[in-house]
Each structure stands twice: as structure tokens, then as C-alpha cells.
Amino acid sequence: MLTRHIRNGVAFWRDDELLASSGITVAFSERVGGASAPPFASLNLGSHVGDDPAAVEENRSRLLAALDFGEMRGRLTCAQQVHGSRIERVGSSLVGAGGSALPGARLPVADADALLTTLTDTPLMLLFADCVPIILVRPSVPAISVVHAGWRGALAGIAGEAARVLSAIEGDDDIVAYIGPHIGPCCYQVSDERVSQFSNTFVTLAPADGRLDLAAAVAEDLVRAGVPMERQKRHGMCTADNIDRFFSYRAENGLTGRHCAVAAIAGASI
Ligand SMILES: [Zn+2]
Domains in the chain, start-ordered, CATH in brackets? Predict the structure, then answer.
């Protein structure tokens, strides 16, 4: 279960039970408690949206400190996120890629919308403003994956593919999925063509009034990949309905910041 926390003004959702039992952190950030000015106010974590890089850098540090990841700041690893379906396994050579928002810093992992690792003390962070954040964990390995799914990624089945890659690692069949805050069908009006694309691909999606339920598509995709509904946990809040808490690309006319999904496996030492 995801529980809301506020530390030093920074709000985030975390599965405390998972952390206590396995040392794996699964978290989704909100937008409060940061240093950025409007329209990025205030905990914008995206370095590609036009915000002041120094503010983004500070925001990332504040979030990591709030999650007790302060000592892992240099190991924060991010992806370029191109609305594709490529999954990158993060080995030691990619640790820290894109973690700093400052000009001239190392670039994020190129052309990837999902990151996966078995490395400890290596926070994987992807950025969102309406798209669906998915975190997959296998406590027995331990291994984690963080996935970005907009409509293209959801339709391409990136969440299920990440689950398959994660499941292929030796260990118990104990994969658990977390679907974070994203734009709900209440606010996600799309073309009839898009609705048919989804209803032709996912049986649980009925073509109805032009609204698209991306989480339902992701959930079905995950079931097909071997993650039953009872091992899927949903945050449940709509980003577009809650712009006091989350960034929403649609509700804020495309000019806004990014919140995140972040996961890490605690190690014995850094
Ligand atoms: Zn909504």
C-alpha cells in the first residue's frame, strides 16, 4: 500500500511495508516543497522543460534527501524518455546518467522509456506530467524497474515487456507492480481512432465516449505478462484533477514541470 509522507515540505507516496520487509523503496513524488517558480512550482524534477537548472538540481536533492537517498545523489539515474518502448538494464557503466540537471552534466540513458536494475544504492527516476508511471519490483532477486507509459508506450506494451524482462531474472515468482498518479479517463478525451486502437488491443477497454483509461490498458498488459491483478497496486489519483499536487501537461496547457516515479534497492554500503 502507498502511504503519503511529507518531509521538509516535500510530499511523496511510498510503500513503507515493502521498504521494511525488503529494503526496496518505491515512491511517487508530488509537486510541493521545491525551489522552482511558476509554471514549474515547485518541486519540478524535469531538466528539459525550460526551468532553471539550479532549481531542478536543488529539487532533486530535496526529494532524495526526503527519501533518505541523500548519499546516493551521485548515483541517481534517469532516462531520455522518448515515448518509445525500449527498456535499458542499468549496469555500473550507466549509474549516474542524467542524475544531475546542471548544464554540461552527463546525459540521461538515451532512447529509453524504462530502466531496470539489480544494482543496490542506485535510484532509478523517470519523469511524468499525466503519463502513467509504473514501478515493478522483485524482492527475491532483488530487482526493480521504472517505466514511463504514455498512450504510445501503453499501446506498445512497454509495462508488460518490462515485467517479462524482470521476470526472466532468476529468483522467486514474486513480481509486484505499482501504477502511480496519471491522467484518469475522467480527463483524458482522445480521438475515436485512438479509442479503437486501444479497444482492439485490450479486451478490458470498451470504446466509450472517447475517454481513454490508460491504467486499465497497462493493468491488462501486466496481467498478460504474468502479474495478476492482486499483485498490482494503484495510486488512483488523477493528475489533471489535482494540479495542486501533481503536474499535468493537459490541464496546464503543456507548460508545466514533472513529478517522478523513483525506486532503489538499499545496499549494505554505498
Ligand atoms: Zn481527472
Answer: 3-265 (3.60.140.10)
